[in-house]
Amino acid sequence: MVYLNDLGIINALGDDKNSVIGALFKNQTGVTESKNLISGRKTLVGSVKSNLPLIPSNLSEYDCRNNRMLLHACLQIQPTIEQIITKYGQNRVGIVLGTSTSGIDNGEKAFIYNEENGHFPEEYSYKQQETGGISNFLKAYLGLKGVSYTISTACSSSGKAFASAKRLIEQNICDAVIVGGCDTLCQLTLNGFDCLESISENVCKPFSIDRNGINIGEGAALFILSKEPSEISLTGVGESSDGYHITAPDPTGNGARLAMLQALEMAKLSSKDIGYLNLHGTATIKNDEMEREAVLNTFNNYLLPCSSTKNLTGHTLGAAGATELGLCWLLLSTKYNPNRILPKQYDTKENLIPDMEIIMNSISWTSPYFMSNSFAFGGSNVSVIIGSKQYV
To answer: Ketosynthase family 3 (KS3) domain: which residues (predicted)?
Structure first.
């Protein structure tokens, strides 16, 4: 058994565990900032307003907003990280992170500067935007000497990081792994999704009949995964790759269903053991319909309480898996959610697509196992299950 010992989190809802869970209970969206797109259209995004820590001067080549946000999450759990390093040693603590764009926002600004001035700014380094930069930065910052790498499979990136981290521990390569993800807003993703006609001008409406696209967000979530017993365990992970289309999901939902079934099998659970499902729920026409098919075929007639939280945080892309698992971790925690509340989906109306048990009023969860889905371009699917031993 492996456990999620601690969590550091920052996104549009807040910049620590208390502020994030507080906004979640208040049903308070962080998707509020308007952005202009190249097309002339506008969209709302879930941006982080908090002041972020500075990157140490000896690591200035990694200085970008993405790594500053990652550092903010790390600082929240650094005392626990230091205890783990002291116990197991620098060689036995690994890092597995997920991202889709890393610090490409810095690269975009450097490119514009180069066009105007004929050279890149002195402070720019490709390491700031390189996919592996977030893991390399965190490894250098913490002085670790073990396994460290980044997974980049678009929106399933940080969800898949948990599968990889779990394997590292079970194969005795690591005793503990710092696992999670980070992604920050940039023009590439905003305008890229706009080109796909998948951006919403207003707060998105997952699983609504009149849904019309996503909101992009940013954030970071970091966990410590180890065999050290704690309240919440990582019980199952399922991965699949259906390869149906480079951007469109398989309308049958077979790949997504396979990931959920594999997660249930690893966790040794039946579909009726799941107390809550955090849906991928992007609010695009095709994704929500696909996920509906996958969920109904996986859980049959079981009325599974579920919701999407992307209209609260925005879709944090490569960080979505870790971000939404962070929300599940907080909702399972006796410290942060002693009354076992499952908050209703934001701005839920009656015009939902049929048969889904979307949470329309706050309820209490009854089974201590939560599942979180993340589905990405190219059919890269992951489903993660965590459980609380306090209620088993």
So the answer is: 15-388
